[in-house]
Amino acid sequence: MRDFMDFVQNAFCEQSHWNPNNFYGTLTATAKALLDFDTPKGLRLSASSLSSRNFATSYSLSNAGIVDGSLSFLYSSLPLQAESRSSAINLQDVIEGYRHLQDLRKPDEPWWWEVWHGGKRVDRKAALLYGRLYLPRSTLEALYLRRISPTRQLRISYVSDSSLPQGGNVLALLQTDAGRYSTEYLYSTDSALFGVRGLYNFGAFPSSDSSSKPATLPYEVRSPHGRFSAGAELYYGALNASGGLSTGIRFSTLPAHTGFPYTMTLTLNPLMGNLSSTYAVKAGGDVALCSRFDFNVYSYESELQIGCEIWRLKRAPPAKILQGLRTGKDANEPDVRPGEDVTGVLKARVDQNWNVGVLWEGRIKELLFSIGAGFDLRKREQIFRAVGLEIQYSS
């Protein structure tokens, strides 16, 4: 389950019309959500609050081996219109699962962002500041986001930890999202690392038309039932004189597709010889399945993982069913937006070595919870690898 601060950062992206899913780093996001989910270790409690539309705080305490905790603060120059109460949050906004790709949208025109008063421009670029202090380790994390233009965003993250070389690390990332394509340029003080990523989407794209505001411009991509994307990344560390290269492709169905939604990806790291393929399918309204096969062309080693997620939905009360029969409406058709009738999700995965992970995430009244465990079925005497419970409350 997403941390509350991650939820608020996603709300900032939505409020500022930024699509975080149109980048090379999210090419395999669906498979990672279904197969690489983290199972809690020990007990972790957190309390968060969006005290105003611009300011959020979060406090956590855990006993995974040792008792520790963290303090988090977040400020957004853009008022966030997000439901922050844990009793009312849409679970699909905080639980990572099968990721449905939406139709691409043409970026905002620069003049849409202009605000004039008395003949002078008074608009400001949206920005977000975030910091988290871990205790008693005194490790500090910080993040600065700034929307430079409708198609560009600057992201600077910092970690201060005595165990890291030079006591910390700074990562600067300049992202550009033009809809049809996206690019990322990064620099990290760790090994003086330089990198570049790119992603290109094939298919139809809306033509440029700056004569109308977003509310009246029909700029959705039309007709395609699926999207084919290809991308690559290249990075080089100046201090250790080493580099890396990877490339990948993805095909995913879009909302216009009338069958089961599915996503296929293929990624390749030619220098290391790693090849990875994934296939995920939404096999029903509340079930998703995923498989991943990894192979190394140099060592001939391979790995297979399969996983699934099952969403639990609320049942319609008898009064609603009777009303639906009288009005001719499907009794199971929700009256609210998708996801508001979700009460929880069960995730499970297993690999060829019989390592099993199980996770149940949901809500009980005012609390969000995640309970999970890891098993090694080959070791009968020590079958449990990790067991934990995480509870979140936000207001």
Please give a structural write-up.
It holds the Pfam family MDM10. This is Mitochondrial distribution and morphology protein 10. Keywords: Membrane, Mitochondrion, Mitochondrion outer membrane, Transmembrane, Transmembrane beta strand. The protein has helices spanning 4-15, 29-35, 91-94, 318-327, and strands at 42-49, 55-62, 68-76, 116-117, 120-121, 127-135, 139-149, 152-160, 168-177, 181-188, 193-202, 226-237, 242-253, 262-269, 274-282, 287-296, 302-313, 342-351, 355-364, 367-376, 384-394. The model is unreliable at 208-223 and 324-340 (pLDDT under 50). The chain has four helices and 21 strands. The chain has one domain (4-394): Porin, CATH 2.40.160.10. The chain has 395 residues and is mainly beta. The chain is globular. The strands form two sheets. The protein has a 19-stranded mixed barrel. The longest helix is centred in the first third of the chain and has 12 residues, at 4-15.
